[in-house]
């Protein structure tokens, strides 16, 4: 399958991706975090956009889905492996059937519940692996407030990836503070932000939004009320519509808070 089949890529970006050596959906699906960043620099677009395309590529690459069913899943609000992994097969089938009635020429043959069950199982397996590796392997510069100057200082003392920051002890933070001449309080703050990104379902996209509404640590998130937090995210999205791909559901925000309370 060619990358142009991924929703949102179009001819312009398809050509850029092809020139960079990523003509097929499978090529995007295999990208590591570092490769996503390199590709984004090469074709001069946001790494978040490449990450979004990769999520759709992962969905299309699942056995039995392909471009046809991926398009339909997109239309019913499922645009990533993560999103699919959390859904109920019977409800998905109902929505696919309803979509097919409205637009009878998109799907050649309706999937069965058994097929959708197999998609969800595959999605869960893939998402479990990716969610562990993806956030931990991100560059520290992805944390809001670090920037190039601080990132270079931290890189010189061995703090390159989020996992390096997440595992720092208080003693190590103080040691790094002396070596880099960055305040221990600042490094501690960045570590808290990294740990916030580690919560299942948050990642870099929602952590940025949470930061903008005053939630920059796990401790801060644990104190919040789900509905109020969601209302603020919705308001933030209206003021800056290109940061979040999709507004989280109330149940998702509740699970974030529950996880934060346990950490």
Keyword list:
0% strand, 2 domains, mainly alpha
Q: What is the number of beta strands? A: 0
Give the H and E element order: HHHHHHHHHHHHHHHH
Estimated radius of gyration: 20 Å
* SSE class: mainly alpha
Percent of residues in helices: 55-70%
- Using the alpha-carbon principal axes, give the shape: globular
Number of H/I helices: 16
The profile of the biggest β sheet is: none
Low-pLDDT residue spans: none
Quaternary class: single chain
Number of structural domains: 2
What is the overall pLDDT average?
87
Strand residue content: under 5%
The end-to-end distance, rounded to whole angstroms, is 42 Å
Question: What is shown here, in short?
Answer:
With 263 residues, this protein is mainly alpha-helical. The protein contains 16 helices and no strands. The protein is globular and about 65 Å long.
Give an overview of the whole structure.
Helices cover 67% and strands 0% of the residues. The N and C termini lie far apart (42 Å). The protein is mainly α. It has helices spanning 10-19, 25-29, 33-43, 47-61, 66-75, 81-85, 89-102, 113-136, 147-156, 162-166, 170-180, 184-198, 203-212, 218-222, 226-239, 250-262. The relative contact order is 0.07. The model has no long low-confidence stretch (mean pLDDT 87). It has two domains: 3-136, no CATH class; 140-262, no CATH class. It is globular and about 65 Å long.
């Amino acid at each position: 399958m060619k990358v142009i089949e991924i929703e949102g890529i179009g001819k312009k970006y398809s050509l850029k991706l092809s020139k960079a050596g990523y003509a097929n959906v499978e090529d995007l699906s295999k990208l590591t975090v570092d490769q996503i960043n390199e590709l984004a620099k090469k074709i001069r677009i946001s790494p978040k956009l490449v990450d979004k395309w990769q999520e759709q590529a992962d969905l299309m690459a699942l056995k039995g889905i392909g471009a046809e069913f991926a398009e339909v899943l997109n239309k019913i609000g499922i645009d990533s492996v993560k999103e699919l992994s959390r859904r109920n097969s019977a409800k998905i089938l109902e929505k696919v059937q309803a979509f097919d009635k409205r637009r009878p020429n998109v799907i050649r043959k309706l999937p069965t519940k058994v097929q959708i069950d197999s998609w969800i199982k595959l999605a869960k397996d893939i998402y479990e692996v990716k969610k562990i590796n993806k956030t931990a392997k991100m560059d520290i510069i992805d944390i809001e407030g670090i920037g190039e100057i601080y990132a270079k200082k931290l890189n010189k003392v061995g703090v390159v990836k989020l996992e390096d920051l997440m595992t720092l002890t208080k003693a190590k933070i103080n040691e790094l503070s002396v070596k880099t001449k960055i305040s221990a309080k600042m490094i501690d703050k960045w570590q808290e932000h990294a740990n916030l990104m580690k919560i299942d379902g948050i990642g870099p996209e929602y952590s940025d939004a949470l930061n903008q509404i005053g939630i920059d640590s796990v401790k801060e998130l644990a104190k919040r009320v789900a509905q109020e937090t969601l209302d603020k995210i919705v308001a933030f999205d209206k003021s800056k519509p290109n940061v979040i791909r999709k507004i989280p559901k109330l149940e998702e925000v509740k699970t974030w808070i529950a996880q934060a309370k346990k950490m």
